[in-house]
Amino acid sequence: MLLRSWISRIRSSDIQAKIFLILIAVIFPLSIMIGLIQSKVMEPILSDEIRQVGVSFSQNLANQIQSQRLLTKSNSNALIEDLIQHMMYTQPSVLRTDVITTRKIPNLPGKILNSIPPSLYYVASSVDEQENVEPPITTLKENMEGEVTKEENIPVWSIYYPVRQGSEKANIHVLVSLRFADSVTSTFLRINLIGAMVSTILLILILNFFLRRVIESEKQLKVAQLSNEVLSEKLQEIQQELIHKEKLAVMGQLTASFAHEIGTPLNAIGGHVQLLNMDLGKTHSDRIGIISGQLKKIEEIVKGFLQTTKKPIVQQKIVVTTRELIENVVVLVMPTLQRHQISFGQEFKATDDQVEVVPLEIEQVVLNLVNNAIDSMKNSGEKNKTLHALWIRTYNTPGNVVIEVEDTGSGISESNLKQIFKPFFTTKMLGEGHGLGLSICQQIIRSYGGEIIVESKVDRGTKIKVQLPLGVKT
Predict the structure, then answer these.
(1) Is 288 in contact with 271 (CB distance < 8 Å)?
(2) 367: which residues sit within 8 A by CB, 6+ positions away?
(3) Statement: the pTM of the whole predicted model exceeds 0.85
(4) 398: which residues sit within 8 A by CB, 6+ positions away?
(5) Quick one: average pLDDT of 435-453?
(6) Which of 359, 230, 370 lies closest to 300, judged by CA?
(7) Are 368 and 438 in contact (CB under 8 A)?
């Protein structure tokens, strides 16, 4: 469990921490391994150097004994011990020095003397009271010999070096400490460990410096990329707005041409309607009045089209009730509703529904919304063979009057709801709409400080709320 928790922590850590852990996990064991290998290589070399120290010490002592002929003198013991003490003072790595020779038995015939095995003793030693102690060897060495052994749990080189002075023979026994080699090896390991720690810390600091710079650069790059994306999106929006404005400019030119061309026939139709009214009298005056009224509205719309292509002029606002505006629109759309078998209902719950507007503009907005509802229900009814209904309501909210148009048509998807007020966006078939109706309606309502709110669900219908500020009562 502990190992799993450590692994999960390492996986969840950032790249910087992972690099540091890798450095520590690699450099430390590698440095220790290198130190161990070097110590193993250095150990026999140092050991051999220490052996050479013991051999040189033995050679110098042997040369001094031979040159001074100390073995033949009566006080050889004291003289050799003084020489040993002097030489060991200059060589602290030598722990002990002995001179071993054969003990002489006087006043015995030669045959008897030869039959008795030789007995060895210490002529001189750097250790006190060695006269009655037997040497570690039973016979003198003829050649120099050396081996690694332990003296009081201390690793030493034990070296025997032969000395000859006439008929006299002796061995110099030297114990040289190997502590220096162990000390050098352990010191070297410590130096490697400290070097590994220092180098790891330095590498971490250097990498930390550069990693911080890289991370900062990456952050700045991400910020720059995000800003570039935002700028690109804004540029695309501006380009789309420019395209829409160009389209609107073209539509303005076409509208001006269309309004100019349609103006003449409308004037002719209006004149003939007046003549018909005079000829028929009161028999069909209501119908002819409706036709005349609608012709006047068409003329006003044509004039509005022409005004949009020229420098805008201020249209006259009047205080009017929303009920009056709605009833004017209902008279126009009722035949269409009856033709498509769409039931209609209206509720005027607004206690105060007076607004200060240009009536033609608000009627144009309501008519556009009703026509869109009829198109939605007409297409849905033809497809599903179902009956539909349309409701128009008015009610008050604080400081406002709301005109609500609700239908049971096909509804609008969430993705399309975000785009319905964009110019030239339409879900209708080619030739059935140009995508300007709702965009113009929104501009008209916002010019009065109002707002259009759309609520819709696919296959369940649409509810559009036109919110207008209340006007001054007359």
Answers:
(1) no
(2) 329, 332, 333
(3) no
(4) none
(5) 85
(6) 359
(7) yes
